[in-house]
């Protein structure tokens, strides 16, 4: 039998070790909080909001909310909620991402590991197929940051649906991204144009332009439907807003999430990734934005029903336009089959 003193000694060592780990985690979190606030103060597009943001964070910090978080995931979720509580900006967030600098050594940089990850994600293209009635379908969950790297994949996807008579682009699970948004927009217009105007601190403005050089054929003169949901975010919303404002697509689904401000991703310490909104997106067509309000669809339906409704609308449009009686009959048959499915 072990001596009671021995058991007490073991307990003391365990408590000491636990206390040490808790103190180390708390110290690291304090450093993350300080760096988060410093970065927001220096970079946030709305500097006038910073004092209230800091005040809110300090209040919770002094109350021990962050030190008391049971895990790093809980800590970043809590801090993000307090940042967004004041900023109302869905692009302002903190993530726990261990060894973050292996993928993002600094803002706006890439690494071989990150490029390999994006290649394996097929640059955001998840599925391409031809639906009954010669209706193309492309499912996109992310827009790659570098359009040049994504050109081959997007060219292949758009080439596959080039000979369809109508197209459905699924953005329901779209989580955002970068300039591949402008690349995709390029396929639906004959000439390059300004997709969005980005306005940064210091009155700096940048024109987000479509591309003159793309792979394959443009998709011109044929109807397009976009599927949206409450999860559609950021660059996915930018694409939807642009196509809607230019009357180039019909949106079917739910109002999007409402994140319109372009952001910068900053690694903090070794295991955290901070997203800071550094600008505003403004439509050159109507001067509007979807920040905080989302993009409203033309046809509001439940997310799960959006594809079927868009497919039906595409078939009806093609049937009504068809001059060949055989084609019209075939499309009517496809519609009947869709109604029964």
3D structure, described in words:
The protein is an alpha/beta fold and 341 residues long. The chain has 9 helices and 12 strands. It has helices at residues 4-43, 50-62, 72-87, 112-120, 147-160, 180-186, 235-245, 306-321, 325-340, and strands at 93-96, 125-131, 135-140, 166-170, 194-200, 204-209, 224-228, 250-253, 263-268, 272-277, 279-282, 299-300. The strands form 3 sheets. It has a 6-stranded mixed β-sheet, sandwiched between helices. The longest helix is centred in the first third of the chain and has 40 residues, at 4-43. Residues 1-22 have low confidence and may be disordered.
Helix-strand blueprint:
Blueprint: H1 4-43, H2 50-62, H3 72-87, E1 93-96, H4 112-120, E2 125-131, E3 135-140, H5 147-160, E4 166-170, H6 180-186, E5 194-200, E6 204-209, E7 224-228, H7 235-245, E8 250-253, E9 263-268, E10 272-277, E11 279-282, E12 299-300, H8 306-321, H9 325-340
Parallel strand pairs: 3-4, 4-7, 7-8, 8-12
Antiparallel strand pairs: 1-10, 2-3, 5-6, 5-11, 9-10
Helix pairs in contact: 1-2, 2-3, 5-6, 6-7, 8-9
């Amino acid at each position: 039998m072990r001596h009671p003193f021995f058991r007490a000694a073991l307990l003391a060592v365990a408590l000491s070790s636990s206390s040490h780990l808790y103190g180390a985690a708390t110290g690291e979190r304090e450093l993350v909080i300080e760096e988060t606030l410093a970065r927001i103060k220096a970079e946030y597009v709305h500097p006038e909001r910073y004092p209230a943001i800091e005040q809110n964070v300090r209040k919770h910090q002094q109350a021990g909310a962050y030190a008391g978080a049971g895990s790093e995931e809980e800590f970043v979720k809590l801090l993000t909620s307090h940042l967004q509580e004041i900023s109302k900006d869905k692009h302002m967030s903190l993530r726990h991402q261990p060894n973050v600098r292996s993928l993002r050594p600094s803002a706006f940089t890439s690494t071989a590991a990150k490029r390999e990850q994006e290649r394996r994600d097929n640059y955001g293209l998840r599925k391409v197929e031809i639906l009954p009635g010669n209706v193309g379908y492309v499912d996109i969950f992310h827009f790659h940051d570098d359009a040049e790297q994504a050109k081959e994949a997007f060219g292949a996807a758009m080439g596959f649906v080039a000979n369809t008579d109508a197209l459905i682009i699924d953005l329901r699970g779209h989580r955002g991204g970068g300039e591949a948004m402008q690349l995709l927009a390029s396929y639906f217009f004959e000439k390059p144009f300004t997709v969005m105007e980005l306005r940064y601190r210091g009155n700096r403005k940048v024109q987000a332009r479509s591309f003159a050089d793309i792979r394959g054929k443009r998709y011109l003169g044929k109807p397009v439907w976009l599927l949206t949901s409450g999860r559609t975010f950021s660059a996915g919303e930018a694409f939807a807003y642009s196509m809607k404002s230019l009357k180039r697509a019909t949106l079917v689904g739910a109002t999007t999430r409402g994140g319109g401000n372009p952001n910068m991703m900053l690694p903090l310490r070794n295991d955290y990734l901070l997203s800071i909104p550094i600008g505003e997106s403004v439509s050159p067509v109507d001067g509007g934005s979807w920040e905080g309000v989302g993009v409203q669809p033309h046809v509001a339906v439940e997310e799960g029903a959006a594809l079927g409704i868009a497919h039906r609308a595409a078939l009806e449009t093609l049937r009504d336009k068809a001059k060949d009686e055989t084609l019209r009959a075939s499309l009517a048959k496809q519609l009947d089959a869709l109604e029964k499915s």
